[in-house]
Design a protein that fits this description.
single chain, about 325 residues, alpha+beta, Jelly Rolls, nine-stranded mixed beta sheet, 10 helices, about 25% helix, about 25% strand
Length: about 325
């Protein structure tokens, strides 16, 4: 077990229908004890795994889900295969009833197969669920997703949106690192990932400090918390988080939102484009482009464009949805050549 001295700061008294703005905009992780304690799903799960399963099935859309299925040998660790050419699990299309039936079948097994349904849109797959189990957030564009499975370990990764993760059934342990720990977490490929986001290659259950020596430095900045049913955690944008589900049935519902409109796209796409167009330039040219990015992207200043008439500034003006669409169309045409 990792030795982590710092616990995530806890905030008591938050309610699902009234989360303070200072919590929603926190730059540090926050544990919100009892935030969803009144959800019917939480009550069902505390009575039994069967009742929680039946409650979820009462909202089943009938649409098949995408599940990650792995042999008992992986011990719940959703990860790569030995040479990072693929993964240690298979994707399968299963119905919710089949997923929950398998979880019940293996609930008393000491070495069950791994079954993990990740990031599934609540409104599409569990219509009506949010009428009784929901958060009231000022950002109406927040996306609610459900995560269902048995014991699992999800490697440290970041998400661009801010995230409130609600532990509805089972217990979950979160280990978090600030964004500046990128170099100490030994991140794997960015174009072949188990679930879309780059992940740390360090196995938190048995860290190989000879292969990953700087991971010890990452642990100095780590924060940890174990959530009980009814608890939630706010994870700020770009914070690394390792998530371990601890029970035979675990259900988490999370809410993602971003501080900028979705039409602006995802920064990871920009990073990949930068690798394509900039990384292999000669060092002196990369330095010039670094200055250009600093000028136009990372430290823009109104003075930089004050000499250009406003109507002639094009993409140097604030980006609206129509301009974003034009940029995407232009990029698609150029990238297809």
């Amino acid at each position: 077990m990792l030795e982590i001295k710092t616990s995530v700061k806890t905030i008591d008294g938050c309610r699902a229908d009234s989360i303070p703005d200072e919590v929603l905009h926190s730059s540090q992780p926050l544990v919100l004890r009892g935030l969803i304690a009144d959800w019917p799903l939480v009550a069902a799960g505390q009575r039994s795994q069967t009742e929680a399963s039946d409650y979820l099935l009462s909202f089943d859309s009938g649409k098949p889900l995408t599940a990650m299925v792995g042999d008992p040998a992986i011990k719940g660790h959703i990860f790569y295969n030995s040479d990072l050419s693929g993964f240690n699990f298979d994707y399968q299309r299963l119905h919710l009833a089949n997923v929950l039936e398998q979880l019940v079948t293996h609930r008393d097994s000491s070495a069950p197969p791994t079954l993990y349904v990740g990031s599934t849109n609540v409104d599409n797959w569990l219509p009506g669920f949010r009428q009784h189990n929901d958060l009231e957030l000022p950002d109406q564009s927040a996306i609610a997703s459900v995560w269902i499975g048995n014991r699992s370990r999800i490697s440290a990764h970041y998400d661009f949106p801010t995230n409130i993760a609600c532990c509805a059934v089972g217990r979950r342990c979160f280990t978090l690192f600030p964004p500046n720990q990128l170099d100490n977490l030994y991140v794997g490929p960015i174009d072949l990932t188990p679930a879309g986001q780059p992940i740390s290659l360090v196995d938190f259950s048995d860290p190989d400090y000879r292969r990953f020596p700087k991971f010890r430095q990452a642990l100095e900045s780590a924060q940890v918390v174990e959530l009980e049913p009814g608890d939630a955690i706010l994870i700020p944008s770009m914070w690394w988080h390792h998530v371990e589900a601890l029970e035979p049935l675990n259900v988490l519902v999370n809410y993602w939102w971003r501080d900028t409109p979705s039409y602006l796209g995802g920064p990871l796409n920009v990073l990949q484009h930068g690798i394509l167009g900039l990384r292999d330039l000669p060092p002196e040219q990369r330095q010039v482009w670094k200055q250009l990015f600093d000028h136009y992207v990372f430290n823009p200043d109104p003075e930089h464009v004050a000499h250009i008439p406003e109507q002639a500034r094009g993409v140097l003006n604030p980006i609206d949805e129509a301009t974003a669409k034009k940029i995407r169309t232009m990029l698609a045409q150029k990238l297809s050549r």
